Amino acid sequence: MAHIDVVADDRAALKRVAARGTVGWNEGPGFVVSRRGAKLQRLVKDQLEETILLGAACSEVFSGPRLAKVLRPALEHQRKAIEAMEKDEPWEPLSIHTSAGLPAALEKFLNCLEKHLPQAPEAPEAPEAPGDANDWFVNLQLEGATAVWAGVEAVAHLRQALKPEEQKECLLGVAQASYHGAKTTALGQPALPRWPGAPRTTGQVAYPVPDSDDPKASEEYLEKFSTFLRDNPQVGIFIFEPQWGSSRLGRTWPPALLREVISRCHAASRFVLCDEVMCGLGRHGHGSLFLSAAWNLRPDAVTFGKSMASGKVFHVGVHQICRQVRHLTALRWLLPQHNVSRRCTPNPLTGTAGAALADAPFALARRQCLT
């Protein structure tokens, strides 16, 4: 461990940042000087520390040459735009407000994304409903908490369109000890007040999570969950994390158990949002973009942000997909009040990187993150 001098400005900066701790808390991870996969060099207490970081919220799985290949098109996009600016020539915008239009890179991203979509829920009822049961749309957000909120709002509109006979009250089933963003402003249990004396986020009902993947324990859990469904008719939407993030150290649900739980939700006319924001590209160990697709979970909507697997080296955005839009025409009338894609549309750089990422091979060499 080599000692280096840390300038006073660096120490002052650490004391002025509230990041995973209170302002002035500078005994944490410190500044990251360099990284290669899971290997980091960090400044910690005036020392240059070499660390292999495993299991962090944004741990590296997709890195090195593969990550460079994904990022290269966005870098070229930016280079061409800057060169055109210097020549006072037209350039493809690096960002654009929705009042002006949408970035062209978004089209390629959506086309690449479609082939990876999870399967739509089975829908034997309402065969007379207009539209295609496999239709879908995307909502683009900047970070995970608002993506989950947007997903919940979209599914609530979908529920209203597909199940108008259901009771109007619609609360959210959220897992015990779950995390979908800051617990002061986002979903997750237990909810916390935003400031001292403030009310907590309302509308969440905590459902139990399985203790283990033992077959006997799974049977007992299904009985417990069925009881929860019966006793809580006010819960119209359930949020599941097929793979948890830092709240449960990347733990996954037993696949067969989660499939059955989601099936029981649908049988009880409940809707399901799978939050895959923390299921980074390749992080779940399956040859697919979505864990919901690999496990055939068939949720009504999915939130995802695949840059998590690259240590968020380039933020490709956080998105939400809504499936089973058989009443898409009706939804178009409902969605003006919906938490729509941000007024400043997705950065074309993120769309370009996202398209390259969606086209990337998923047979990842696991050892790459350690070499």
TrEMBL record:
SUPFAM superfamilies: PLP-dependent transferases (SSF53383)
Molecular function terms, GO-annotated: pyridoxal phosphate binding; transaminase activity
Similarity comment text for this entry: Belongs to the class-III pyridoxal-phosphate-dependent aminotransferase family.
Organism in which the protein naturally occurs: Cladocopium goreaui
Name of the featured protein: Uncharacterized protein
Keyword terms: Pyridoxal phosphate
N-terminal signal peptide: none
Record-linked PANTHER family: AMINOTRANSFERASE, AMINOTRANSFERASE CLASS-III
